[in-house]
Amino acid sequence: MLPAPLKKQLASSLQNGFVLKRSVFQQCLELYPIDEWDLMMQKINKLNRFVKKNNDFIRRFTAGVKVVEIDALGRLLVPKDLVSFSGIAKDVVFSSAVNIVEIWDKDLYEKSISGEDMDFADLAEEVMGNINDDDNGIS
After folding, report:
1. Coil, strand or helix: which one is 14?
2. Can you tell me the distance from the alpha carbon of 128 to that of 132, in angstroms, rounded to the nearest whole number?
3. What DSSP string describes 98-109?
4. Distance between the two ends of the chain, CA-based, in angstroms?
5. 71 and 80 in contact (C-beta within 8 Å)?
6. Which of 2, 20, 34, 104 has a CB 3.0–4.6 Å from the CB of 16, allowing a cystine?
7. β-strand 92-97 against 100-105: which pairing, if any?
8. pTM of the model
9. CA quadruple 81, 84, 74, 38: dihedral sign
């Protein structure tokens, strides 16, 4: 069951449906509104399939992809193979990830954000430190 505020945020996408897939980097699921998925597939379709790495990437990226809908009550049926991949056991976390929603087992989510395996300040500086989109010097 999606939380009501999340369902409200996704209201414009409810009629078109969603794509649910395995995450590339984490043991979670990614929920793409169809419009976002179409944009991603436009990028993927530009890859040359005669380059083995590209072909391998496409196969792995699209493995387990399912088209899903959220019903009128806000329920999302997660196929068993994706539940198994994500390790979802009991409690679920829906985490906004800019243009998609990550779906996590609560314990795995808490572990992933605990910071035990990285210093978030160092990560933030490395990822965002060189971005300066504004003329005023403030990112």
Report:
1. coil
2. 9
3. TTEEEEEEHHHH
4. 37
5. no
6. 34
7. antiparallel
8. 0.83
9. negative
